[in-house]
Amino acid sequence: MQKFNPAFSGSDVKKYILKKNLKKDLPASIVVFLVALPLCLGIALASGAPLFAGLITGIIGGVVVASFSGSQLSVSGPAAGLTVIVLGAITSLGSYQTFLLAVVLAGVFQMILGLVKAGTIGNYFPSSVIEGMLAAIGLILILKQLPHALGVDTDFSGDEGFFQQDHENTFSAITAAVSHFSLAAVVISLLSIAILIVWPKFPKLAVVPAPLLVVTLGVIGTILFAGTDHPLRADQMVKIPVVSGFGEFLGLFTMPDFSQLANKNVYITAATIAVVASLETLLSIEAVDKIDPIKRVSPTNRELIAQGLGNITSGMVGGLPMTSVIVRSSANVNAGARTKMSAIFHGCWLLLSLLFIPGVINMIPLSCLAAILLVTGYKLTRISLFKHMYHKGWDQFVPFVVTVLAVLFTDLLKGVAVGMLVSIFYLLRTNMRNPFFYRITNEGDKKHIRIKLAEEVSFLNKAAIQVVLTNIPKETDVIIDGSNARYIDPDVLETIYNYKHNAYTKGIIVTLENIQKHYTVPKLNIKVEEDINKL
């Protein structure tokens, strides 16, 4: 094992860390590239856009967004969650060039959202909902990739919705695949899964990344089965556009139609894309931070700015709108990536493959890529995660399970929205039952009750305080003590003052101690705030 000399200079330390990380980032980037390739093409196909648009979006998501992003493990590219919006927008706006203008404006809107600190909304997603989203993505990966592993699926790769573009749903697609499976695809996918599970257990062999070995096996399998009665068909293979030279490559780019700047529908489409893409990005960033082995925290506002730059660039050259994508990001984490260089390299591999080796790439069977995603999906939705959430209590387990089911049977955003509603219900229920914000004491033989408010009393405590005050018996002296309170919500103050005003009708005497007429939200300590701003 290489030892680190503490006498090294700062530059030596950086070189040492870079070299150490590159050993993990380079192999991981190849895995992400192989996973992203069919997803970029499939999402472009489902969106009604040129196949090249999907690839260029993946390239920009890797090179541009990752370069400016503060997230070390997130991978950006075209997202399945935007396909319906994109397909409808291209049709309604009348031309692809007009749609590209909407993508550019969506990027501008995202940058504005980042500058006004809108990314902080990502801090309010409950842990149980994020865990549920990750588990659901894992299940979706398994269920959606099974048909590809069996060699039968007419729907595009990366479709995360329950109802598919080919009029099938998640389960009917699996049933159809089982009935019409391909022997070659099954053999390749089973061998690939076996390699992905067994290969890492031998450290000396693991110098060669298991996914790279799987892809090599897939190409060899394609060649071997070509001479049998069960060859792989063209729709069971990766398919990227073949360009004969750099000039033809440049001819694939498309510019937005800036003459449509006065078209109000362009701005409506841009705002829709910006909001949906930003929400998906924030959810993905939160999820990736949870599975990051080093537990780094990504700056969400900076991420929105990076996504905005990516969408502006993508729209300017003919690409699709992009988000941080949890499928590719999860594959990146599970492949052992350590820094953003993995995402940047994956963008470079997409570009180089399009320019120099499209023939070799088109020999990779989808079944071996499906095997990589099946193993990734299992790691996200492992049984131990469900056990862990169950032991955390019903207030965590129920929102977790509801999120899993909602994402599985609808889509990412709708599922998370349902999970958030259930989580909020449990939050309100806890506040109703939890007396942490007051203390009741009986003083002497008389009926004396002292209610001592906590340091922070929010509107979530209003209902519980109302219940306590309503149940105070007649002929009682009540003292409501706010000496510890730095902030009391206006709704709670109104409840307290209304009770004091009406309590005499029950013979209750109410005394308010150290309760102000108005409170302002407490600010950070000035010194702490200055230190944070310096960062």
UniProtKB/TrEMBL annotation:
- Occurrences of domain SLC26A/SulP transporter (ranges): 22-391
Q: How does it sit in the membrane?
A: Multi-pass membrane protein
* Any one GO CC term of the record: membrane
Give the InterPro entries listed for this entry: SLC26A/SulP_dom, SLC26A/SulP_fam
Where do transmembrane segments lie in this chain?
Answer: 26-45, 51-68, 75-93, 99-116, 128-150, 170-198, 205-226, 266-285, 348-377, 397-428
Keywords of the record: Membrane, Transmembrane, Transmembrane helix
Q: Where in the cell is it found?
A: Membrane
For this entry, the protein name equals SLC26A/SulP transporter domain-containing protein
Taxonomic source organism: Pedobacter ginsenosidimutans
Record flagged with keyword Membrane: yes
Q: Which GO terms describe its biological process?
A: transmembrane transport
A single Pfam family, by name?
Sulfate_transp
Domain of life assignment: Bacteria
